[in-house]
């Protein structure tokens, strides 16, 4: 990952240095767009990864129109890119990308770029219809390399459509929620005051007159709370990122409710208790991967989810027999996965286990969960075990 960040840093300097000389679309492609694709592992010299002037039988699209670039993984197109000159306003050209996107059932990720700004789109609102707003916007003239770590999601060796769609959904919701939260804490309107008063269990009738009287106090409390969080964040960087994600999960995740789940005691061993949290965890994973053959297995030491009910093909082991529950995935935590976990607000222990205080937090590690499923689904990874 350090190498990737260094390459991005060099690319940022390159864009700033030569961008103004890219007056045509072709120059922009050669000088700015293709170098980034190469950094992402999509070599412009390999037609099995990058196909220029991609043409397909798109209904409703003129025969003369072609997608500037189609990116390929495993022999299938996975992403369309529409290129424009460095000085072009991308907003004016989004409908062109939309026509290609909407006409192709196999591609759900699209990007439009002028070399300095990249806008990434998918179809979160209506299937096979490109969203009007991008789920990620990257500007190489304004961002630092370490702020562009999200681009690692688009690397050829890390390109998973399901993972990207979750990433897109996460980004979209976080941006929307940040906007609402920012507005609420800046304006501190009456609805926000009422919510704070209710959560604080104020023993008063929460009528308008009373809420208006405490409005200045709530505003002051918000400012102090933000200040305290920033100060703590200087010594613990993950605190700031963890809080917003936790709020989103608790507010919007239906699995947050424990309705329908009760602890289950094994009739053969009363020391094996499948807890509510373990059942919720299984419910979430089953919902994420409905086509996979997954089974749950509980022991005195840990709870696990197995692929095809095979003991050696465990996606993860979950241990609630501690002060703080932990989870361990079957795939190793390389630097890229560690960065992904830390960015989502999860804490990693030196032994490679991860604190999972609530089962819903598995959503934060859905990419690694998918990697674990892929690993367990590949018989090649278990040949030595089965022959032994």
From TrEMBL:
It comes from the Bacteria. Keywords: Endonuclease, Hydrolase, Nuclease. InterPro entries: Restrct_endonuc_type1_HsdR_N (IPR007409). The keyword Membrane does not apply. GO terms for molecular function: ATP binding; DNA binding; type I site-specific deoxyribonuclease activity. Residues 62-124 form the Restriction endonuclease type I HsdR N-terminal domain. Pfam families: HSDR_N. One of its GO terms (biological process) is DNA restriction-modification system. Signal peptide: none annotated. This is Type I restriction endonuclease subunit R. It comes from Acinetobacter shaoyimingii. The lineage of its organism: Bacteria, Pseudomonadati, Pseudomonadota, Gammaproteobacteria, Moraxellales.
